[in-house]
Amino acid sequence: MNNLKRLAALALALCMSTAMLTACGGSSTGSVSDDSTEASEETEATQDDAATQETDSEALVMATNATFPPYEYVEGSEYEGIDVEIAGKIAEKLGRTLDIKDVEFDSIIGGVQSGKYDMGMAGMTVTDERKQSVNFSESYATGIQSVIVAQDSEIASVDDLSSDTRIGVQQGTTGDIYASDDYGADAVTAFKNGADATQALLTGKVDCVIIDNEPAKAFVAANEGLKILDTSYTEEEYAICVSKENEELLDEINGALEELKADGSIDEIIEKYIPSDAQ
C-alpha cells in the first residue's frame, strides 16, 4: 500500500511538473522573442555605430582660421567663404564629408604636419619656409597683400614703409613673415587675427596693417576712417597644404582641383564672393 501511495504521489508530481513546464514554455517563448528583438536592435545599433565610425573616418578634416573673409568666416552658425566652398567641392569629388576645424592660423601647418588634420586651407600662401614642413597643392587663387592705413595717414604708398613704421599683422601669415623680413621683427606687432590688428590701427597702436586684400577690403568697409593704399605690398598664390607623409591625398586633391578648374566651379565660387566688376 505504501508503494502504491508512493507511485501515486510520484505520478502527481510528474503531472504538476509537466504543467509547470508547459506554462513556463509559453512564457519562455515570449521572452526569447523579446530577447531576439532586443538583440536585433542592439545589432542594428552596433551596425549604426560602425557606420557612423566609418563615416567619421571618411571625413576630410580641414583646418582653417575662420576670421579671413571672404575666404573663410562664420555666418550665424555656419562656415562660409571661398575656401569653405572649394573644400566642400573637393570632399564631394573624393566621396568624403568635409569636417572643418577652426583653429589659430599659426597652428594649421603643425596640425597638418602631425596628421591631426588632413589639410590646411586658409588663404594660405606657398612659401619656401612652409614647404619645408608640408606639401602644397596646385594653386587655386591669387592673393594680394595690401596695406591698410588711417584716412589721414602720412603713409601714401608702400615705399613709405620703413623700420620705424609700426606695422600690424596677423600672426603667422605671409604679411607677418614678409614684413618681419623687410623691416625687422621690432617693427612688427603680430595679432591673433586681422580684426584685432585693424582695431589696433583704429586706436593708434600701429601705423598700418599688412594683410590680404580681400580681408582688408572687408575690414575697411566695416570701420570708418580707414583706407587701403593703391599700391599692393606683394602678390602671391594660394594653395592647400597637406602632410608630406600623405602623397596619395595630395594627388587626389590636385586631381579634384583640376576638374573644378576645368568645369568652371572655382571661378564661379570666387566670382560669387569677389565679383569681377568689384575687383
What is the chains' assembly state? single chain
Instruction: Outline the biggest β-sheet.
Output: 6 strands, mixed
**Whole-number mean pLDDT:** 84
Q: Which band does the percent of strand residues land in?
A: 15-25%
Shape: globular
Termini separation:
117 Å
Which structural class should the secondary elements be placed in? alpha/beta
Task: Walk me through what this model shows.
- The chain has 279 residues and is an alpha/beta fold.
- The chain is 48% helix and 20% strand.
- It contains nine helices and 14 strands.
- It has helices at 2-57, 82-93, 108-114, 128-131, 174-183, 194-202, 213-222, 247-262, 265-273, and strands at residues 60-64, 67-68, 72-75, 78-80, 98-102, 119-120, 135-136, 141-150, 167-170, 188-191, 208-212, 226-228, 234-238, 241-242.
- The strands form three sheets. Strands 8, 9, 10, 11, 12 and 13 form a six-stranded mixed sheet that branches.
- α5 (174-183) links the parallel β9 (167-170) and β10 (188-191).
- The longest helix is centred in the N-terminal third of the chain and has 56 residues, at 2-57.
- The chain is globular.
- Mean pLDDT is 84; it is low at 1-56.
Features:
single chain; alpha/beta; 279 residues; globular; 14 strands
Produce the secondary structure layout.
Layout: H1 2-57, E1 60-64, E2 67-68, E3 72-75, E4 78-80, H2 82-93, E5 98-102, H3 108-114, E6 119-120, H4 128-131, E7 135-136, E8 141-150, E9 167-170, H5 174-183, E10 188-191, H6 194-202, E11 208-212, H7 213-222, E12 226-228, E13 234-238, E14 241-242, H8 247-262, H9 265-273
Parallel strand pairs: 1-5, 1-6, 9-10, 9-11
Antiparallel strand pairs: 2-3, 3-4, 6-14, 7-14, 8-11, 8-12, 8-13
Helix pairs in contact: 2-8
